[in-house]
């Protein structure tokens, strides 16, 4: 064993310049999944049909927890479920009131038509011919 080489004595002088850290981009790596937390909170506060916003909020929190823990695959699954429930909650919050408004408008139009026909029925005047009297 060669002990003549001074290993500890010779150290290169540390550079005071700060070099930028290299950026590594993986070709197959996908970005971290979104947790859709703000959308879930909005749907929870809006109190939509069947409390779908609350279910979406639960999956959003689970997705965020899994993302912080480093389990990207579980975070992706929970994120997908949260997005699905948020989509259903938003569609229900938009479609159901529009459907109810359309039913209300068609009902009012139908009732006004019936009222107009009943008024015309009761105001019908018989003709002045007295053929029945003879």
UniProtKB/TrEMBL annotation:
Primary place of residence? membrane
Family recorded in the similarity comment: Belongs to the CD225/Dispanin family.
Protein's name according to its UniProt entry: Interferon-induced transmembrane protein 5
Please name the GO terms of the biological process aspect recorded for this protein, alphabetically: bone mineralization; bone morphogenesis
Q: Return the Basic and acidic residues bias intervals.
A: 1-20
Q: Which gene encodes it?
A: IFITM5
Residue stretches spanning the membrane:
37-59, 85-111
Q: Say which species the protein is native to.
A: Eudyptula minor
Q: Is tRNA-binding a UniProt keyword of this protein?
A: no
Instruction: Specify the domain of life of the species encoding this protein.
Output: Eukaryota
Q: Cross-referenced Pfam families, in alphabetical order? A: CD225
Compartment list: Membrane
Q: Which UniProt keywords apply?
A: Membrane, Transmembrane, Transmembrane helix
The UniProt entry, under InterPro entries, shows: CD225/Dispanin_fam, IFITM_antiviral_protein
Gene Ontology CC, one term: plasma membrane
UniProt-listed PANTHER family: INTERFERON INDUCIBLE TRANSMEMBRANE PROTEIN, INTERFERON-INDUCED TRANSMEMBRANE PROTEIN 5
Q: Where is this region: Disordered?
A: 1-30
